[in-house]
Amino acid sequence: MNFKTLALSSALIPLSGLAAWADCTPALVSGADITCTGTTTTGLRDDTADGVSITVTAGAALSHATKHTIELDDDATVTNAGTISSGEKDAIHTDKRLSVLNTGTITGADEAIQADDDLVVENYGQILGADEGIEGGADSTIYNEGTITGVDDAIQVSTGAYIENHGVIANVYGGGDDPQDGIDIDDGTIWNTGTISSTYDAAIDFDANVADDTAPAEAAGDAFAASYISNTGVIAGKQGIITDHRANSEQVIENYGLISGWDGVALDLYGGDDSVYLGTGSHIVGASYFGSGDDYLIFDIGGAIETTDLFDGGDDFDTVLFQDYLFADITSFVWEGDVLELIFSGGFTTYLANWESYVFVRDDVVETYSNAAFLTAVPLPAPLLMLGSALGAFGLLRRRRKA
Ligand SMILES: [Ca+2]
Ligand SMILES: [Ca+2]
Ligand SMILES: [Ca+2]
Ligand SMILES: [Ca+2]
């Protein structure tokens, strides 16, 4: 080795060593409160370290070429205003009770963020996964005002999830054979004023509580807990909101925005007693299937709803309620097979199948009708309804059996 080479290598070794570590201080041990500035390419990795707090400052970049960039055990806190990325694995990978506050960019070649139960993410920046954007376990909480994307699910969480979205949560799958959802969830609460979408699968997908994912569809699993969705924004995908066809859980959906499925299904709620409230501003693109269970559909739309698609109550005793309409406001109705087209004065039109009870509410007046009311061109006076109902239901049953 000549002098020139020796000088070069001895100068480079300590410099590269310093560059790798000096930008994140102090050293990584359990309980450490670490701040990263500048560029660090060796990540912060100790999968036995608990209670570590990491702050990545604006302009700083923390990465690893081949491994999880941040890999820790429980109770980690990550505050990111810079960039956290991995060349081949997850950007952030921990066990339970990870807490992330992101105003920067978190990019994973696999997941952007993968953690277990009690994950908390507050996002105002970009969280981008080449597989999933965020994967969390039970009782995870995600608040989003930024962008969360995944080529697989943008967000995958299990039971007891709370997701509040004012930004974009999107599956951005662009080809291949495993399209996935905007949000994949077992049960929980979703508040949306932003956009939740999927390019080739459901915007929101509820899983079934089956131990073996290969159990055939239509084989009932135990129900997860009831879930609640409030939407004033956009929920759009190949389907809007669907449940696995083994999922007998209850979904309660309150909508004032767009729920859309380009493949023709806006809602597929399957088993359980599901409820859908459509308030003013509702726009439903695609049919809605309520499945088995005693389901409810409430139109409270202030005189207009933008949909010409079917609402199908499915099996069991289902109720559709029209707020601010009375039966006398129906100007015409017609059956096309099992589908009842109702046209109200003012033009509101809806298409209904497999509903057993029709309730009309205006001020203090509540009217309840069965399908019998729609078997004659002239609405029956109320005292005859009960008899008509029994006969009508029998007639419908016979018609169906013949069909
Ligand atoms: Ca359901
Ligand atoms: Ca149902
Ligand atoms: Ca039903
Ligand atoms: Ca029914």
If you had to describe this structure to a student in words, what would you say it looks like?
- The longest helix has 19 residues.
- The N and C termini lie far apart (92 Å).
- This protein has a domain of 106 residues.
- It has 403 residues and is mainly beta.
- The strands form 2 sheets. It has a 23-stranded mixed beta sheet that branches.
- The N terminus and C terminus are likely disordered.
- The structure holds calcium ion (4 copies).
- The site of one calcium ion has 10 residues, from loops.
Question: Summary?
Answer:
By secondary structure, the protein is mainly β.
Please describe the structure with a list of short key phrases separated by commas or semicolons.
elongated, 2 helices, disordered C terminus, binds calcium ion, mainly beta, disordered N terminus, 16-stranded mixed beta sheet
Average pLDDT score: 88
Oligomer: single chain
Q: Give a count of the beta strands, DSSP E runs of length 2 or more.
A: 39
Distance between the termini: 92 Å
Radius of gyration: 27 Å
Topology overview:
Elements: H1 3-21, E1 24-25, E2 33-36, E3 39-40, E4 44-45, E5 53-56, E6 61-64, E7 70-71, E8 77-80, E9 83-86, E10 92-93, E11 99-102, E12 105-108, E13 113-114, E14 120-123, E15 126-129, E16 134-135, E17 141-144, E18 147-150, E19 155-156, E20 161-165, E21 168-171, E22 183-185, E23 188-192, E24 195-198, E25 202-206, E26 227-231, E27 234-243, E28 251-255, E29 258-268, E30 275-279, E31 283-289, E32 296-300, E33 310-312, E34 319-323, E35 330-336, E36 339-344, E37 349-353, E38 357-362, E39 365-369, H2 385-402
This protein binds calcium ion (CA) (4 copies).
